[in-house]
Amino acid sequence: MKRRSFIKTTAAGAAAVTAPAIWSEAKAQARNETLLIVNESPPNSMDIHGVGANRPAYEVSWNTHDRLITYGAKKDANGNDHYDYTKLEPELATEWDLKPNSVTFKLRRDAKFHDGTPITAKDVKWSFDRAVTVGGFPTFQMKAGSLEKPEQFVVVDDHTFRVDFIRADKLTMPDIGVPVPVIMNSELCKKNATATDPWAMEWCKNNTASGGAYKVERWQPGQEVVYVRNDDWKSGPMPKIRRVVMRIIPSAGNRRALLERGDADLSFDLPSKDFAELRTMPKLTVVGTPIENAMTYIGMNVTQKPFDNVKVRQAVAWALPYQQIMDSVMFGQAIPLFGGADNKSKGIVWPQKDGYKTDLAKAKALMAEAGYPNGFETTISFDLGLASTNEPLTILVQESLAQIGIKAAINKIPGANWRGELLKKNMPMIANSFGGWLNYPEYFFFWCYHGQNAVFNTMSYKNPTMDALIDKARFASGKEYEDAVNGFVDIAFEEVPRVPLFQPLLNVAMQKNVTGYRYWFHRQLDYRQLAKG
Amino acid sequence: MRPLLRHARYVMAENPVTGLAFGLFALFLLAAILGPALAPYNPLQSNVAMALKPPSAAHWFGTDQLGRDIFSRVLVATRLDLTIAFASVVLAFLLGALSGVAAGYFGGWTDRVVGRLADTIMAFPLFVLAMGIVAALGNEVINIVIATAIINFPLYARVARAEANVRRESGFVEAARLSGNGETRVLLGHVLPNIMPIMMVQMSLTMGYAILNAAGLSFIGLGVRPPDAEWGIMVAEGANFIQSGEWWIALFPGLALMLAVFCFNLLGDGLRDIIDPRMRT
Amino acid sequence: MLNLLLSRLATAIPSIVGVVVVTFMLTRLLPGDPAAYFAGLAASPQAVAEIRTKLGLDKSLPEQFVAYVGDLLSGNLGNSLSTGQPVVTEIATRLPASAELTLAALLLAVFIAIPLGVLAAVKQGTWIDHVCRVVTTAGVSLPVFFTGLLFAYVFYYLLQWAPAPTGRLDVFLSPPQHITGFYLIDSALTGNSETFWGALRQLALPAISMAIFSLAPLARMTRGSMLAVLGSDFIRTARASGLAPRTVVFTYAFRNAVLPVITVLGMVFSFLLGANVLVETVFAWPGVGLYAVNALITSDYAPVQGFVLTMAVLYVALNLAIDLLYGLVDPRIRLDS
Fold first, then answer.
1. Which of A107, A334, A411, B55 supports an S-S bond with A159, CB 3.0-4.6 Å?
2. Contacts of C134 in chain B (CB under 8 A)
3. How many distinct structural domains can be found in chain B?
């Protein structure tokens, strides 16, 4: 290794100083048993229920806590591990009895928290109560599965826990396996609770009260999290990796260099071009999994002129430089959502291709029909935090739109303002992405196209016919369900308030000796299945 | 004027580096004025088929991610970068020189207020203050100018104050006062013109700093809007491509940036020598 | 001496008050809504309102200001929302990282710039003088973000001379026992040579990037002040009495020329401490600059305020220290005051 010889020469250069033992035996040993992950952004909490807990915090929570149940695995089209939405498997619960009005879980008898306290049903109840009570994201996510009130959670005995249903909801069971309903050490938390903070939110921000497969050994906020394996873990097969270090490296270029040099083991968060190139390198493995129920799109605000006119929206859809975006912005690292045979739904999958492709003649004709033969001026906005993709993307879109007379100024909005701007709903045109955890078309449509006008319906699109179809799909099944889905997809394509561009991939690059990577719907890394060497 | 010119020629001969700086300055001025006319390609026109090509006879500085010609972009960016820097320096001068001269001339509470204001601004970490101002006022070029002017203000105010203070009791001021001029008139008509040469030096010295500051802000993503060409933003775009071997995207705008700042710094030194032989060290 | 100290402090206090007010106003002007940001994407307006109340953002500006000043007086700078930690502890743990980097850069710059300045002054007007001027000016003309990127690419990626730009220490080394917070000093004190070398290697590139930037003011001031001293009467006398040129330059002139350089040194240090934001980003250096920028981007008020305030206090304290130092070194100043 060249580095080593460099060190020797520097050491020799500083002759008088005692030669430093840079590569001590212990360090080499540590290197082999440690997985080094380099990422862009740090967790802001150890507690997934905390106010504003971010995505990296979900990853901490996922790996340090148990949930009652988890999802099974399958192989995807490329032979990579992929979580299986249809298979619920035991984690802390060994078995469960699902009845129409309730579900009863039997808990593992030998499971212990990291501090040695046995895990019992009262911990489970305390944790579920906490999730539905503290408000914000956890409460909201629990509600998505009709888990709303503490009275629903019943301790039958030390190792038996029951959830009573308030309504029949096909999302209740899946929702118990998402990252939110983690099992926390209730005694430890209560010890650190105060009168004003009965759920120990303050303490849990910096401490884990958990019993999962990994323990947090050191957390330097903004810099790194170091985990060690919990050797007493009982809720699944013993993880192979003893130590995990997650370091924050803000510069994407440096993350790539670390991977290429073999200094880091694994990284998400790289530009598409880097993944495209790393893919061709023999010493690295790159796994790209289509992100379920997700798309990057151009949204138009239908409450504003001229985008209230469906012809204008269609003109935009026929004018976008789809293939150029795929080639020059995404470097092929995405799944095209354009250029299908027509604008009809092709079945119960989402996202799927629409019938638009770049056809400027058609776009110009539609602009003329809409009464804008000379075009108009508008602004296209995007989140500055996603500039590495969205900046070249919007520049291409801007150029393309100019050819049908639309003069679009580009507005970069700093990440902090972006959400505020989305909530205000007055940006005329945006480049944005959305993805839902739960992989159902109607889940996506409920958030993005429904007249309830959630924040994700960035176009403020309202159409009673579409609302009726979405509502029907949520509770129907069989043929009725399929008709409803096909119905709302057709409307979405015809009316195009948002023009789908592509389905993004969740890319991860790792050293060849790292194996066992599994794609999860929450898009965070699960350390428990990984192996090295 | 003639002795000044003679002195300038003397300084040039004495100090070839200043000559070099003047040459560079002329070059940048030319690029700023004629840039768009000289550019071989449209700096905004993408050409996806030619994306990420290394420097060649057709594209001297290569092409970027969208196939735009980097040479044309670097050339055209000159105008925007120099305009931002120049505008902010002029603004800082107007604010700083006027308040500084008044402070130095009148003394008393004017002096205290201006002095405190300058001290307060100097106590800020200046780049972060500039970031905060642009973030607060909105993502526009004009706000980069304002932010840069504000952080440069104390430099001007201090120099102007010191110089005005020295001249307050001097003969020509006394004469102007005795011939019946009001205080404001003396200040603007006599004291201010007298300290102009020193302020000019200050301006060319801070030009370089202003360029760096503006480029730093757009490097972080504040200010200049795409697809406009600007050196800082081009370096930021290119930064993502350095590790994959496309070094030219960041290198050339970075060099242009460096050369421009270099030129203004040398120029400032040189001007100081010419205008104020006394301060010549 | 004490009087001088007190009068200096008295003039510094209005500046600090000004900084507190301006920072408060500026952060409130930032268009981002922290409540919307931290409520998460799926938040209902009601959830956003809840968080706003929790953060105290529903109160009027004067009320917020009073609360803020009250907290300040009790030494509480608030909590960072993006890292979840109290700002005071975060700045305390990050400041040594920035200070170590800045001091290392400054030390390096001093060792290069002062000899250059002396040389330029002694050889005034020759090509050596011009080269010194061009080299130092070129240094200050380099955008640090650009030099940093270039260095990381060339010295880590291409040549493999430098370690991976992963912060203050290689991942597989553990930080030394906390004594001063400066890794180099702490590891030297505890005799941990492995950590010492690791820290030194990590420090090299960012420190060099910053040192290059600070050469010019130091060299320029050394040259100017040397020239002034070399032209003074006592040097003429010394030369006339036949002392060796070397003795004249180093023993007599340099000693007297060093005072103004100390002033510039202090200025440069406080300037660099605030300005190394971009270097810290490029090298993943866990200092206060990186912390402040991230906070600014997410409209996280507390860290921005804390950072600015810390820097302002440091600036004032540093100037004060320089004044006092000056007074100690140069008796004339003490008489004046």
1. A107
2. 17, 266
3. 1
